[in-house]
Amino acid sequence: MASKRGALIVLEGVDKAGKTTQCKRLVQALQQSGRPAEVMRFPDRTTTIGQLISSYLEKKSDLEDHTVHLLFSANRWELVPTMKKKLEQGITLVVDRYAFSGVAFTSAKPGFCLDWCMKPDVGLPKPDLVMFLKLSPADAALRGQFGEERYETSAFQKVVQQRFDELMKDTSVNWQVIDASQNIDGVHNNIMDHSLNAINTAQNLPLGELWK
Ligand code: FDM
Ligand code: MG
């Protein structure tokens, strides 16, 4: 029998929710329990496309809104062969942002609907689990100021949260909302529970296609 595949696990959430910290903690905990796991993040700023995106986010360049949306999507698609290979090798991938951020952020701009924003990502590897780290704007503010990058304002993040709320109504995706206002260990324990479940379930199922 073929060896068991890894699970595709995504962490999403608003700014300051602790996604990056929790992705690292999760991968460490999985590895320590003998489960192969690797962290990935989108945008992956290391590729040629990723460098265009990074320069845009740092406000060093301007890009037309549709164009940058498609670049974010292309940045995911260019990593798909690598992702599939790793999952087939039994490696669980813990991903810091994915297509959901892509849709939530672009559709928070005037003139963009959810439907148009989803189209380029239709058919991407479907996550076995998407955890949304939920943090109120008040709690986020307690964690410090926003950074200097594009999109890092409370007004924009508020609309992004509304778009995420829309996306979470889609029951074809395994969404789990995590209370990110707990301390780091508390959040980690919740995330670990959901992840172990997803890993066990995924090993006997084929990888799905997102929004298809
Ligand atoms: N972002 C991220 C998008 O607008 N579209 C996407 O597809 C993705 C993956 O880029 F503001 C936004 C979200 C965030 C920024 O920031 C990336 P981090 O701090 O590198 O996650
Ligand atoms: Mg950030």
Automatic annotation (TrEMBL):
Pfam families: Thymidylate_kin (PF02223). Residues 11-191 form the Thymidylate kinase-like domain. Keywords: ATP-binding, Kinase, Nucleotide biosynthesis, Nucleotide-binding, Transferase. GO terms for cellular component: cytosol; mitochondrion; nucleus. Signal peptide: none annotated. Its EC number is 2.7.4.9. InterPro entries: P-loop_NTPase, Thymidylate_kin-like_dom, Thymidylate_kin_CS, Thymidylate_kinase. The keyword Cell membrane does not apply. It catalyses: dTMP + ATP = dTDP + ADP. The keyword ATP-binding applies. It is an enzyme of class 2 (transferase). One of its GO terms (biological process) is dTDP biosynthetic process. One of its GO terms (molecular function) is nucleoside diphosphate kinase activity. Pathway: Pyrimidine metabolism; dTTP biosynthesis. Belongs to the thymidylate kinase family. Catalyzes the phosphorylation of thymidine monophosphate (dTMP) to thymidine diphosphate (dTDP), the immediate precursor for the DNA building block dTTP, with ATP as the preferred phosphoryl donor in the presence of Mg(2+). This is Thymidylate kinase. It comes from Parambassis ranga (Indian glassy fish). The gene is dtymk.
